[in-house]
Amino acid sequence: MPSPIHQAPHLRELGAFLKTRRSELSPSDVGLPDLDQRRRVSGLRREEVAQLAAISTDYYTRIEQGRLVPSEQVLAALVRALQLDSDQSEYLDSLADHATHRSTPRPAAQSRTGGSRVRPQVRRLLDQLTDTPAIVLGPRTDILAWNPLATKVYADFDAMAPHELNYVRLIFTDPRMRELFDDWTAVARSCVAILRREAAINPADPALSALVGELTIADRQFGQWWAARNVARQDFGVKVLNHPVVGELTLDWEIFRYSGAPEQQLVLNSAEDGSPTQERLARLGRM
């Protein structure tokens, strides 16, 4: 039987996440009859979710209110009831796991910019990748390190103040990013979904809260997408950039993590051999 943990940050986020997900489903989506045409709430009611998960309404209510940690069996039942995808299910499990163990994240070593320190060996690797734009992202998508080609493809990170070095902040506050990315909306929504996953690690992180507050004020779309609580884990993909100097760049990107600093991500961009993008990257590198 799960023990009550009153209003732990992870449980508050878990309850809010479940509430958002049930608001997106109608009775017909889950095979229930809609006998009340005058619903006062959007989506499913709590009692309908409880029915689908085969638990009592009171039990589910306490979960949604952040008052207890659901068992693994109940979590699995809620995943099925709310038709969560793999990323959403992983997010839910992570929130519950952190709430159960209530572990305090270990402070990361700090760099001169205030972010996690990047090992010298990784910085050397970045410098050796002369034909591959590469950056290292830390918690909250802080930009911790980069190579010269990345500054020519994306932005002049060397000229930025430490507080400006955040990938999501740049996406939403730098007008040049909206011109650079061919599908800015898709990139921006993905950034919000990835940032939302960090709440599973430390939802009470004051730096994350400050960043979210800043961007909610700065951009209405960010606020809407953040409130939607969509989550995503993306480790590879393709993006198209409209570079102001060399033209269109089609880049494959991959994310690599290493055990020595699990909160950091090495993001590599590459072009297909013999492609126009490869030639344009080479031209940028010579500039």
Could you outline the blueprint of secondary structure elements for this entry?
Layout: H1 9-23, H2 46-53, H3 57-64, H4 72-81, H5 86-101, H6 120-128, E1 134-137, E2 143-146, H7 148-153, H8 167-173, H9 175-180, H10 184-197, H11 206-218, H12 220-227, E3 236-243, E4 247-256, E5 265-270, H13 276-286
Antiparallel strand pairs: 1-2, 1-5, 3-4, 4-5
Organism: Rhodococcus koreensis
GO molecular function, one term: DNA binding
Protein name: Helix-turn-helix domain-containing protein
Question: What does this entry show, briefly?
Answer:
The protein has 287 residues and is α+β, with helices and mostly antiparallel strands. It is built from 13 helices and five strands.
* Rg, Cα atoms, Å: 22 Å
**Major sheet strand order:** 2-1-5-4-3
Largest sheet: 5 strands, antiparallel
Strand percentage lies at 5-15%
Question: What is the class of the largest domain in the CATH system?
Answer: Alpha Beta
Q: Helix content range of the residues, please? A: 40-55%
Query: What is the tally of beta strands?
Result: 5
Order of helices and strands: HHHHHHEEHHHHHHEEEH
Organism: Rhodococcus koreensis
InterPro entries: Cro/C1-type_HTH, Lambda_DNA-bd_dom_sf, MLTR_LBD
Protein name: Helix-turn-helix domain-containing protein
GO molecular function: DNA binding
Structure notes:
With 287 residues, the chain is of the alpha+beta class. It folds into 2 domains: 9-100, lambda repressor-like DNA-binding domains (434 Repressor (Amino-terminal Domain), Orthogonal Bundle); 120-286, Beta-Lactamase. 46% of the residues lie in helices and 11% in strands. It is built from 13 helices and 5 strands. The protein has a 5-stranded antiparallel sheet with strand order 2-1-5-4-3. Strand 4 (247-256) and strand 5 form a beta hairpin. Helix 2 (46-53) packs across helix 3 (57-64) and helix 8 packs antiparallel against helix 10 (184-197). The longest helix is centred in the N-terminal third of the chain and has 16 residues, at 86-101.
